[in-house]
Write a structure and sequence with these properties.
By secondary structure, the protein is mainly alpha-helical. It has helices at residues 2-8, 13-29, 35-63, 84-109, 114-133, 147-168, 176-196, 198-204, 209-213, 215-239, 253-265, 273-296.
Amino acid sequence: MKVWIQAARLRTLPLAMSSIIFGSACAVHFDVFNPWIFILALTTTVCLQILSNFANDYGDALSGKDNEGRIGPSRAVSSGEISSSAMKKAMVIFAGFSFVLGLFLILLAFSNDLLYLLVFLVLGLAAIASAIKYTVGKNPYGYRGLGDLFVFLFFGLVGILGSYFLFSKQLDWAVVLPAISGGCLSVAVLNFNNMRDIENDTKTGKRTLAVMLGLQRAKQYQYILIIVGFFALIVFALLENFNLRQYLFLLLAPFFAQMIKSMIRNNNPVAFDPYLKKTALGTFGLSLLFLIAVLLG
């Protein structure tokens, strides 16, 4: 059980939940919140994230990309603690969970609108495929520098705009700003992961965006992601006429500023490992503070 929990990489779950919390906060702000949609969206997202983590473990073992020189937690399949066949079964199970929960979610949200139901069914299937194809298959997109784009799309635009649309059945363009924020900060977590593994990925031919950019430019890219992530929320707050106490989410600005300051001085990829957890939890905390902020309004 301990090995399976490690393979599920529970520390990544708060980041996955952040996109639903951001979208739900916008639903609260525009007075369209539904608690059942929130619960189903949250559980579906958690299942998708666990599926992605299992697929990542399986795909890296199959390709041999992380078998040697890995800095982060060891892979369960590569280390032999979980067999590849058992991991494949776990992937099928969580793909099934994700599909069933997602189906209940869209039936609840769009029981009277067949078009929206079909569109979100396709998006749900695309999310399942994306979770698996990151490192699995003949041409995994995670090995071709496209991981950042897919994380931004599914953790930002699809995750936040999509979850808001489940509540509202319409699109308010102001919600694009929190979607950009959540997307950028989610990509920042991935980029820390890729900067940490940059040396091993270069040796094994795993072409992440950090490998393509090089460490120094990847750090500059990271600064942009964090700054844009915060700036987008501030612009949303200004456009929506937040009162002073609703700027509560800015309490986390010094946390992220300190992270940037530490990065400037750091050129050792190994030292980036703790930043993954910090950034994921920081993003989760930011989403909660944003939710509290709209409740204060």
